[in-house]
Amino acid sequence: MIDTLRNHIVKRLGNDIENLEIVLASFKPIMVKRNEHILRSGEVCKYVYFIAKGCLQVYVHDKDMNDTTRDIVIEDNWCSELISFGSGQAATESIKAVESSELLAIDRRNFQNMMEQVPQFDKVYKQILEASYANSVYRINTFVSLNALERIQWLMEYRPDLMTRLSSKLIASYLGINKDVFSRLKAQL
Amino acid sequence: MIDTLRNHIVKRLGNDIENLEIVLASFKPIMVKRNEHILRSGEVCKYVYFIAKGCLQVYVHDKDMNDTTRDIVIEDNWCSELISFGSGQAATESIKAVESSELLAIDRRNFQNMMEQVPQFDKVYKQILEASYANSVYRINTFVSLNALERIQWLMEYRPDLMTRLSSKLIASYLGINKDVFSRLKAQL
DNA sequence: TTAAAACATCGACTTTTGTCATCGTTTGCT
DNA sequence: AGCAAACGATGACAAAAGTCGATGTTTTAA
Which residue is nearest to nucleotide D11 (CA to C1')? Predict the structure, then answer.
């Protein structure tokens, strides 16, 4: 489990990282079951999670208690509610496990320590933030300019893995489409 | 013009910044006329801009050459295509002036220098990035969960200034609504 | 100042998307 | 294994959003 994270870091920062093992030791392994929450909106997000295995859903409830999924994150990626994590304010989003997952969590104190002790780790945060930002920008532009059918086609082209891995309901909520509409449009392809 | 930036920085980082004047001197003033581009998609974004006065539109073209506006940024804020600026890759978005504007531009080299010479300036970048990210997340969640009418109401509540300052066409494109639909719904409020 | 262009609004119509109820299938749980 | 719950597909209908053409208004630029 730790190996996945070690590989991930080495892949990005190279092999010459001082204190790599100390860094790795600051992460706490967490096992979550399918549908279990690791963050509920209103709470403060205390951790940044590295997903060693599994899949997480980041979402908000709309007024009718439907959930709208802002992001779906799979293994070998980072997931958190960075705004809450960084500011200490209550999170607006919730995060739950779509599948049983293996996570490595690091809290704020350890995160800060690491940024100071391991200079390169500062880059990790920047990378996480930049990747998250790029992802959001991309998503907005996709969203605003494509209709329901085009969004489905987009997902099939760029994330075909998600099409088979996730339930229709979840995909529809990720694409911002009603699940019945998703079902219909998918059929006519 | 420089005063606006000085105030902006002091407001965030406090008054005890070494080399503040040197920092400010790294910015190049740029005047842009209404409708003038400062970045076209396909080019590399070479600057981060501080808007001393005016208003910029960040947008992409969809397949029918309509533009869909990802962001509208007004004076006393930062604007850039951060992904391109950071990576040196071609920008996917374009940026143009909605009004005649006064900008202060800093290029990558100066930006890097400053991060090294003025330790606190590193924070500025992080703040810009975090603010941009938070903005995007907020926008996605608003967008996915609200219908056209609700999005208009949302804008009227949180950014009433934009409602009067911008053309209907631009607002509609920012809200992801057809301009005729926007006109109709606005009338029935 | 004035002609051209861009803008805003509106009605009539089309297309897309959402809702609801139903029904057979799959899945999860004990 | 067996039951309940969740899921997925679909038809009929309702609501929302988009398109187009016409018209009057405002801006822009020469």
Answer: A184
Q: Which two tokens stand for residue A66?
A: 């439907």
The residue to which tokens 């709470």 are assigned: A43
CB proximity B34–strand D (7 Å threshold): yes
Per domain, the residue ranges of chain A are 2-119
Tell me which of A67, A137, A150, A154 to substitute to probe the interface with B (most B C-beta atoms closer than 10 Å).
A137
Residues linked to residue B61 through DSSP beta bridges, in sequence order: B67
Reduced to 3 states (helix: H, G, I; strand: E, B; else coil), residue B137 is helix
- Determine contact: B21 vs chain A, CB below 8 A: no
To the nearest whole Å, the CA of B99 is away from the closest chain A CA by 23
Q: Give B70's contacts in chain A (Cβ within 8 Å).
A: 137, 140-141, 144
Q: Is B157 exposed, middle or buried (0-12, 13-18, 19+ CB in 10 A)?
A: exposed
Q: What is the CATH number of domain B2-119?
A: 2.60.120.10
Which of B62, B126, B141 lies at the smallest CB-CB distance from A145?
A: B62
Residue B18: per-residue pLDDT = 75
Chain centroid offset of residue A91 CA:
15
Q: Tens-of-pLDDT digits for all 189 residues of chain A?
A: 899 999 998 888 887 777 888 889 999 999 999 999 999 999 999 999 999 999 999 999 876 667 889 999 999 999 999 999 999 999 999 999 999 999 999 999 999 988 888 878 888 888 889 999 999 999 998 888 899 999 999 999 999 999 999 999 999 999 999 999 999 999 988
